[in-house]
Amino acid sequence: LATGDSLTVLNGAFCADNDGTCTSLVAGEIRADAFPTTGGDIAEYMYSEGVLPPGTVVAAHPTIKEGVMAANKAYDASVVGIVSDVDGVLSDIRPGIKLSRDKGNTPVAIAGRVMAKFDASNGEVFPGDPLTTSTDGRLMVAKKAGPIVGKALGVAENGYVVTMLNVGWYNPDD
After folding, report:
1. CA-based nearest residue to 150, from 57, 88, 48, 71
2. What count of other Cβ atoms lies within 10 Å of the Cβ of residue 155?
3. Are 45 and 58 in contact (CB under 8 A)?
4. Closest Cα partner for 75 from 143, 133, 150, 138?
5. Rounded to whole angstroms, how far apart are CA atoms 129 and 121?
6. What is the model's pTM?
7. Residue-wise pLDDT tens digits, 10-28
8. CA 39 from centroid of its chain's CA atoms
9. For 35-49, 101-115, 135-149, which range has the lowest pLDDT when averaged over its residues?
């Protein structure tokens, strides 16, 4: 048994709270009395060759294991997600590694609401429009079948669009 001001470990279960009232812990269970988050996305750290600013649409890097780079072509099937501003939930599967943006670790949103750079060369964007990759780490409206990053939640403002991230495939004939 290990107990601190805000963490209890009992019979293989963890509980985080602020008043020591953890009860009914079962082995293998993780419990938090509150899990506040101010953001709208879920992100994971991924490797990159340099710092990629929030809103950059990223694709799998062809030579860096578990790496990403700014998406650089239309309808890129290797799209992974969008660089997060890290206001949401952030996780990593690499234990023991101290992560920070300046060490080539990029927080990539993999689900949820995220602001993305937008390229209007394929037309204006409206709520519900499917969004695919463009060039220079930006999104554009998908006009043909192909990979998409998600759907627009609004119109583009100042070169950005709020996107409900859901990497998948779009077919306008469906």
Report:
1. 57
2. 13
3. no
4. 133
5. 15
6. 0.73
7. 666 666 666 666 665 666 6
8. 11
9. 35-49
